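The record is given unchanged here:
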Amino acid sequence: MGSPIKIRENYKSLTGIEKSAVIFLALGEERGSRLMERLDEDEIRLVSRAMATLGNVTSNLVETLMRIFTERFANAGSVVGSYDSTERMLNRFLPADRVTEIMGEIRGPAGRTMWEKMSNVNEGVLASYLAGEYPQTAAVILSKMRADHAAKVLVLLPPVIRTEVIERMIQIESVQREVLLDIESILHNEFMANYARTHGNDSLERMADIFNRIDRETLTEIFDDLETVMPEPTQRIKQLMFTFEDLMRLDRVSLQAVIRRCDTGQLAIALKGAPAAQRDHFLSVLSERARLILLDEIENMGPLRMRDVNDAQAEIVRVAKAMAEDGTIIIPQSDDADTVVY
């Protein structure tokens, strides 16, 4: 037995996208499709997803919404957002295969989950795998991944293969849903299963992220205890962790970007308790004026608890990791530590 249909009657409970979805549905398929045709692809996906999951919107809520946006629609009736009504509207102005792809993503997260997983695979491992695939298959996979990660993979492909893959990526228009499902199945059954066996698992990455947020003194005790009972997983967690010391591996431009994003007071606290070599390294990438200001703030600080220093350093690490995740900077792998040039 399916779940009951949602009844939407509270204006304040609607998001901006949901309000737009109500308007499209109230306009009807013909007028709504003409309006939706003017949206870009990302906007179509957002509105379509909201329409498909909207449920039953009461006539009072529709009237309130329409009155706020325009008096012309004050007397609109109730609307029901469903997968079927969304698909019918999309079919009025999009090719059938594009509608199938969009509705497939709306109805279930399986496809999106796979591409998100691929976007988190080490770029070197992924480049090695794609180099042995047909260029067309590699092109589809890279086109569906996050742009920042696809860029990292592309530069690691052999030049001849890279050119072929780029040519096919440029020529890609739309990919049939059946083809995508086949590729996803292969990635799941062959690549991801093997990758999981050879590159650890999500639990170790999750523990590394947790440990990054624990103060150094406590973390030392944890590792001392863990290494006696789980030496191999403990070593793997250490490799996955990114610490304040690892910021030394960033190139000059990336470190400058991190410093600009950080609170100056937090940075001063973090550096006051850091070893001299680390402090000097941070200061070396600053302009003379910025360096003097930061030095003055560090020197004029009173005594600090080490707990405050650890907290400040952890905050700067979190800033750096967030910047790496959105592609602003690139954090070198631990194996690359000796190859960074400043």
